[in-house]
């Protein structure tokens, strides 16, 4: 089967793209609006870009009525927090994805605790195992979306998730949620190790 995206409408292309790039991590982005109202929403067009300096990005598509609140807020304040969604937070994350009016506080609606961040003006999700405080580096228009690139200036990590012997987060304890397509998600419960080949490996 061959598919030429040039022959398809936007919804069909969206379906192909989000079921090709799987599973995706979820950036649970918390911000304040210009009046100090907290906002929280999930974005799975999300990636790490580089570690020097630590830089991540998420993309915000428009809604029928215009800009999403998250984009309005990162444009206005230049700061945000990306919280990592684990299995325990899945339902609350889903609740925060409703296309609510800007005056709706998704923290209150989903019974989550908003805690002030340490270095940026944005709330973080106390229940999340990892939160990354970010300063906006750039907001790039890409097609119909906007890609927000942010530098991580501070990490909040739940103590049990950090493995001091490896300096990494323990995937068995973190239990990150993956987004698939439509309403499907994946639990990361089967983890295996695979060492990289030596440069002189020839088969
Ligand atoms: C798991 C998940 C991932 C999502 N990923 C994106 C995304 O990458 N880009 C986007 O524009 N919307 C995404 N959405 C939809 C937004 O979360 C939704 O439009 C939300 O209402 C935006 O909230 P806001 O207006 O407060 O920013 C996602 C929803 C879910 C449930």
What does this structure look like?
The protein is an alpha+beta fold. The protein has a single domain (24-187), classed as Pnp Oxidase, Chain A (Roll), CATH 2.30.110. The protein is built from 5 helices and 13 strands. It has helices at residues 10-20, 69-77, 90-95, 106-109, 171-174, and strands spanning 27-32, 38-43, 46-51, 54-60, 79-84, 114-116, 123-125, 130-142, 145-157, 162-163, 168-169, 177-179, 185-187. The strands form 4 sheets. It has a 7-stranded antiparallel β-sheet with strand order 2-1-5-8-9-4-3, covered by helices on one side. The longest helix has 11 residues, at 10-20. Flavin mononucleotide (FMN) binds at residues 26, 39, 41-45, 59-61, 63, 68-70, 94, 97-99, 179.
How many helical stretches?
A: 5
Strand order of the largest sheet: 2-1-5-8-9-4-3
Instruction: Give the N-terminus to C-terminus distance in angstroms.
Output: 32 Å
Q: Give average pLDDT, whole number.
A: 97
CATH superfamily: Electron Transport, Fmn-binding Protein, Chain A
C-alpha Rg (nearest Å)? 18 Å
CATH class: Mainly Beta
- Identify the bound ligands: flavin mononucleotide
Number of strands: 13
* Percent range of helical residues: 10-25%
User: Which fold name fills CATH's third level, the topology?
Assistant: Pnp Oxidase, Chain A
- Low-confidence stretches are none
Percent range for β-strand residues: 35-45%
CATH architecture: Roll
User: Pairing-aware structural class of the strands and helices?
Assistant: alpha+beta
Main β-sheet description: 7 strands, antiparallel
Secondary-structure element string: HEEEEHEHHEEEEEEHEE
Number of domains: 1
Shape: globular
